[in-house]
Amino acid sequence: MDLSSLRPAKGAVKGRKRVGRGPGSGNGTTAGKGNKGQQSRSGYTRPVTEGGQMPMYRRLPKFGFTPPNKKSVACVNLAQIQMWIEKGLVGEEISVLDLKHLCNASNQDYFKILGNGEFESAVTITAHFFSKSAVEKIEKAGGKTVTAYRTLEEASKVNGLPFEEALLTPKAPVLKKKKKSDKS
Fold first, then answer.
1. In terms of C-beta distances under 8 Å and separation of at least 24 residues, what long-range contacts does 91-94 make, across chains too?
2. What is the mean pLDDT of residues 42-59?
3. CATH number of the domain bearing residue 117
4. Which end of the chain has fewer CB within 10 Å, C or N?
């Protein structure tokens, strides 16, 4: 007995089912898929079938909630701003546009300045939010804080105002509509 004489047991290996090869094969014409319908078309597979086993999407619990009006806030520490100033990446005034480019943020982001780190530069920083410690450190160094009210995307959509001005003007309050009372 040698390796070349080894064969699988009789009946252990089944031949491949060749479908769609004429009526004599028993699986011609419709190739065992029945007549018409989505299941007979090519490319059809049932999504997430696990063959009678409880599928994953039903085994796992539902959880969480995504608020529709969630604000995306990018946080920047004063130590980071100080580093940018020392490297010469920003000047005397740091705008929301500067923060966007230096943080690789999107146009929908709000920016919050946090007070971590040392800060000795007298600069004007424009951002949407400031922590109390950040305001104290900036003013102690001789700088100013300017609050922006809109994201870059919102400011670009304001008609009749220059971009920089649109950033800094507060949004108009949303007025609630009064319900009309039915007179009958």
1. 91/123, 92/123, 92/124, 93/123, 93/124, 93/126, 94/123, 94/124, 94/125, 94/126
2. 84
3. 3.100.10.10
4. C
For residue 111, the enclosing domain spans 73-168
pLDDT, one tens digit per residue, over 26-45 is: 888 888 888 998 888 888 87
- Band (pLDDT 50/70/90 cuts) for residue 82 is very high
Determine the Cα–Cα distance for residues 44 and 88; give it in Å rounded to an integer.
Answer: 59
**46 inside domain:** no
Instruction: Confirm whether 106 is domain-assigned.
Output: yes
Three-state secondary structure call for residue 136: helix
Residue at 83 is within a domain: yes
